[in-house]
Please model this.
Amino acid sequence: MSGNIYSMDMTINFLIQATRVLHVGNYDEDELSMITNFMVAVDNDILNDYNNTCTIVSYDSDLQLYIEIIEALIVIFEGREEYEICGILKDKRDDSVEIMKTKTI
Model:
């Protein structure tokens, strides 16, 4: 990966924790902000790594988990009518879906 500050182990652990927090629905504003900021900051290098890694057997790739979290965040922010962040999250989702479509094995 090109100089980003996140290791793959750290990011996948964060994704797993974020999934749990969002699905339980027991989060405060700081946790929601931290999850959102991380998800938006993930660059294409990490997205490509997610696409080529399968940490959780029930997913074809870690990128599917990332997309699931993005979609949960979109629902939360649409419910709050915070459309600017929804647009950013939708762009990240669309970029991720495009990366997933280009997976070659």
Summary: The mean pLDDT is 89. DSSP finds five helices and no strands in the chain.
